[in-house]
Amino acid sequence: SLPKIFVTRQLPERGLNPLLSHAEIEIWPERQPPAYEILLEKVQQIDGLLCLLTDRIDEQLINTGKSLKVISQMAVGYDNIDIKAATNRKIPVGNTPGVLTDATADLTWALLMCAARRIIESEQYVRAGSWQTWEPTLLLGTDLSGATLGIVGLGRIGEAVARRASGFNLRVIYSSRHRRSKEIEAALGVEYVEFNRLLQESDIITLHTALSKETHHLISYAQFALMKRSAILINTARGAIVDPQALYQTLKSGQIAGAALDVTEPEPIPLDSPLLSLKNLIITPHIGSASYQTRLKMATMAANNLLAGLLNQPLPYCVNPEIYS
Ligand code: GLV
Ligand code: GLV
């Protein structure tokens, strides 16, 4: 009989095509993700799991899946999965790097421009009927030309953000755990600086690191204190990289100019969060990779990873390839 797989949400149509003749597929039909208890029950009956950021794939869940052969996540990040527990059981974990790089870099720039030129406030101003006349000091933002863009984490997405900067006459600096080669720096037109210096010198700071113990609340009170009063913070990476209380205090007191977030801690942001009362903050609901083309590519890639795992082949995109050696 065919191997059984569980897909934790409905995916873009055609995304599961690679799996159709190879597996018995169960798809969670609800809009909300399956509760952890449901996942625990499902995982006992399946060979493959296709999951999302919204699923907690912890050690207990992984060890409960006695017949589980592969975990395939439709996302580039995998901070919701206990990779060590999967590796201990020699279960490969797949992800979807690369295909969402451009979409996420595009959204980063969209938020950056919205924050710099106060687009959301301006739009609300028009709809509220406040537009009376052209005014010399109405809704003034900040120029990108001549400004310094600081990229925290120069991986695939950070690089794609840097590449998009070239037409704006920006100085681009970056900090990173691993400094990139001189050739890559020259090709991207970026300059390496220490993290604290990046915080001090940037007019716009954009975060592109993975979430880990080291990057949890990487931006908190001490880091905000180093930033310029005119600084704008962009986060399209993971919410928990920024301490939300520190962000609130900082924006509320005008210690930096503004922020734009596509990710929050927690997600979704509670409606009573004080952050939602701030005018100098833009929030979108984790839509970095949300384009038709990109989501189909992600789903197809996740399906191909899953299929490889079911067929005992190495996953095309595996986050724990050490299980093969
Ligand atoms: C989205 O946030 C992803 O990690 O793919
Ligand atoms: C994600 O794809 C990254 O490496 O930035």
TrEMBL record:
Q: Which UniProt keywords apply?
A: Oxidoreductase
Q: Per UniProt, what is one GO molecular function of this protein?
A: glyoxylate reductase (NADPH) activity
Q: Where is the D-isomer specific 2-hydroxyacid dehydrogenase catalytic domain?
A: 5-320
InterPro entries hit by this protein? D-isomer_2-hydroxyacid_DH, D-isomer_2_OHA_DH_cat_dom, D-isomer_DH_CS, D-isomer_DH_NAD-bd, NAD(P)-bd_dom_sf
Give residue ranges for domain D-isomer specific 2-hydroxyacid dehydrogenase NAD-binding: 110-288
Looking up Gene3D superfamilies in the UniProt record yields: NAD(P)-binding Rossmann-like Domain
Q: What is its EC number?
A: 1.1.1.26
In the UniProt record, does the keyword Oxidoreductase occur? yes
GO cellular-component term (any): cytosol
| UniProt family annotation | Belongs to the D-isomer specific 2-hydroxyacid dehydrogenase family.
This one is known as Glyoxylate reductase
Q: What is the lineage of its organism?
A: Bacteria, Bacillati, Cyanobacteriota, Cyanophyceae, Oscillatoriophycideae
